[in-house]
């Protein structure tokens, strides 16, 4: 019975997307950075696009464009992580920056697609609330990519404790900033990094207060009226 319930839960698109995002975040924060892990996480991230297409059901042309863009971006990541450009340090850094920006654009498109889907739903369900949570997680991942892009050109953009050096500190920093936790173990020093962190903290509070609170409120009121 329990396994049947689990199978039914994972068949729902938002549940699948939420599961994928939690896996990505856990790997990004816990495990050490290495090329294989980066490629694996990127592959999982791009596979989430299939769930977004399944949820949003965009036009055929939009779906094809997103898939092409995701394949191109993933190819860039693989080339970068396998060290093809290592003999050319300057070019390698530029290529890494381009990779992060391409990933950021990809995630931005996915977030916009999901927001449009949420806004067009006439009835708020538990699945839709999970969709709102998925967007929250995606925003945190997006900001972590932007932080890393800044760090590519300015290695001293963030003051990071040595314990975080082996992991991806930007995913962790993005989440504690989005939730306005701020433990102080990672600090933005670069002016652009400070500005981004400020915007993320504001967005995190406003998103929870406006979008998630509204979805939960509408869901609760619908359940009350149904009963």
Automatic annotation (TrEMBL):
The chain crosses the membrane at residues 12-30, 36-53, 65-88, 94-115, 127-150, 170-189, 201-220. Residues 170-219 form the Potassium channel domain. Keywords: Membrane, Transmembrane, Transmembrane helix. It holds the Pfam family Ion_trans_2. InterPro entries: K_chnl_dom (IPR013099). It comes from the Bacteria. This is Potassium channel domain-containing protein.
């Amino acid at each position: 019975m329990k396994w049947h319930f689990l199978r039914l839960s994972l068949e729902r698109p938002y549940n699948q997307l939420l599961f994928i995002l939690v896996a990505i975040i856990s790997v990004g924060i816990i495990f050490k950075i290495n090329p294989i892990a980066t490629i694996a996480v990127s592959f999982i991230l791009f596979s989430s696009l299939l769930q977004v297409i399944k949820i949003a059901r965009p036009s055929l042309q939009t779906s094809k464009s997103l898939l092409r863009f995701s394949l191109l971006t993933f190819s860039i990541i693989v080339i970068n992580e396998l060290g093809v450009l290592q003999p050319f340090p300057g070019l390698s850094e530029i290529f890494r920056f381009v990779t992060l920006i391409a990933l950021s654009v990809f995630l931005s498109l996915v977030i916009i697609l999901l927001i449009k889907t949420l806004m067009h739903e006439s009835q708020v369900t538990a699945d839709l609330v999970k969709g709102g949570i998925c967007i929250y997680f995606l925003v945190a991942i997006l900001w972590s990519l932007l932080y890393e892009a800044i760090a590519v050109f300015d290695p001293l953009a963030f003051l990071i404790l040595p314990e975080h050096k082996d992991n991806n500190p930007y995913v962790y920093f993005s989440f504690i900033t989005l939730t306005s936790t701020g433990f102080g173990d990672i600090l933005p020093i670069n002016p652009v990094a400070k500005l981004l962190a400020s915007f993320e903290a504001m967005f995190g509070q406003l998103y929870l207060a406006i979008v998630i609170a509204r979805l939960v409120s509408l869901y609760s009121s619908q359940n009350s009226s149904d009963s």
